[in-house]
Design brief:
Number of strands: 7
Strand content: 15-25%
Helix content: 25-40%
Structural class: alpha/beta
Strand order of the largest sheet: 3-2-1-4-5-7-6
Distance between the termini: 32 Å
């Protein structure tokens, strides 16, 4: 064991010989490790509680947003979500599986005219002429001219330009749906490659209790957060933040997320993963 000079910190091992000294140093090492963990947790909480920027607040206040979207703001907390994600004017943001475009529209205004927003949908969605994706109409709206719909094979995802932020909301669990037969490891690596070095992947999803098997996504549409961490770290990402703004310990985890008793109020986790800068 390497001897540490605790005297420079105003700390010193107790008298009692070499063994006591080593025990003291081991205790101090453990203390510093716990302090580092606490600092990370505090940093994550601070990020979640940070005051949203003026650009984000203006984007949320956009008069072009439909009432069906603004009516969900109290539950979805979009300003806090974009601040946690680090969305800024001029960035390139990819909204992975954007659904009705709730966040896509806000991203568009937040990144501004010098930024770009890619609404990433599946090739099957793009090919369905009977039911075109909602974001297609949004991208055709001149008020949101920086939005581009990208139809992609998720396992080989390629964006027009690398993204600063890739965002997916309440969709990560869907990648595991049996009917899609996706290689989720390949999808995660494709997302990793689609980011700029130092870019962020934000995953927001419905939480399942710890230890819940992955096949439960087919019925409950929830996922154990530990599975998400493990899979994305295996793809090369580093977990650098967590927001608990949407956590709800009163959620009834036995219910499907579409059950009226819990819909809109499920326990949701939000993780920030980073692609290493080099």
């Amino acid at each position: 064991m390497v001897a540490l000079n605790w005297s420079v910190m105003g700390l010193g091992p107790p008298a009692g010989g070499i063994q006591a000294k080593f025990l003291w140093e081991d205790l101090m090492k453990r203390t510093l490790m716990l302090a580092a963990v606490a600092a990370f947790a505090l940093g994550s909480a601070s990020a979640a509680a940070a005051k949203p920027s003026a650009a984000i607040m203006a984007a949320v206040a956009d008069k072009g947003r439909p009432t069906e979207d603004t009516g969900r703001d109290a539950d979805r907390k979009p300003a806090e979500m974009l601040e946690f994600a680090g969305v800024k004017p001029g960035q390139t943001v990819a909204d992975f599986l954007p659904g009705g475009g709730y966040f896509t529209r806000i991203f568009s205004k937040a990144v501004g005219p010098k930024g770009a927003v890619y609404a990433v949908i599946s090739e099957a969605q793009a090919a369905n002429k009977d039911k075109p994706p909602a974001v297609a109409a949004l991208a055709a709206d001149a008020n949101y001219g920086n939005i581009k719909v990208v139809a992609a094979n998720f396992q080989t995802l390629a964006l027009p330009t690398p993204a600063d932020v890739i965002w997916t909301s309440q969709n990560y669990h869907d990648l595991h749906l049996s009917r899609l037969s996706l290689d989720v490891a390949a999808v995660n690596k494709a997302v990793f490659n689609a980011l700029k070095p130092g870019g962020y992947y934000i995953v927001l999803d419905h939480a399942a209790p710890a230890g819940t098997p992955i096949d439960s996504v087919n019925t409950a549409h929830r996922i154990d957060p530990a599975i998400v961490k493990s899979e994305l770290e295996a793809a090369g990402f580093k977990l650098v933040g967590e927001s608990k703004v949407l956590r709800n310990p009163k959620d009834d985890y036995t219910k499907n997320v579409f059950d009226p008793a819990v819909r809109g109020h499920t326990d949701q986790f939000i993780y920030k993963f980073q692609k290493p800068k080099s």
